[in-house]
Design a protein that fits this description.
Layout: H1 6-16, E1 21-25, H2 32-45, E2 47-52, H3 57-71, E3 74-79, E4 82-86
Parallel strand pairs: 1-2
Antiparallel strand pairs: 2-4, 3-4
């Protein structure tokens, strides 16, 4: 899992404010295809929102941790059913403070 500072997390939250979710996790959960879509989204955009249907907070937190561990990404924010995940691209578009 990628680690970021609290200042970087605050910056990324502000950048994610106007984003729409690019991946939806449904009742099937975190399948291989969902992981591939998240990886594609991160490769294209670096910072993405993911929406989770169903599950309680503990399930969503576990999903967020699993996504970040599998893709070596950073957990930026988890509010309700919306996750914000960051992974820098080879040529970063976002310059972190």
């Amino acid at each position: 899992m990628l680690n970021i500072t609290s200042e970087q997390r605050r910056f990324l939250r502000s950048q994610a404010h106007n984003l729409n979710p690019v991946v939806l996790i449904g009742d099937a959960g975190l399948t291989e295809n969902v992981i591939k879509e998240i990886a594609l989204g991160l490769a294209s955009h670096e910072l993405i929102k993911i929406k989770v249907h169903g599950g309680d907070k503990a399930v969503r937190e576990a999903l967020m941790e699993e996504i970040c561990n599998q893709l070596d990404a950073a957990s930026v924010q988890l509010i309700g059913k919306i996750m914000v995940v960051y992974k820098p691209a080879e040529k970063p578009k976002l310059v972190l403070p």
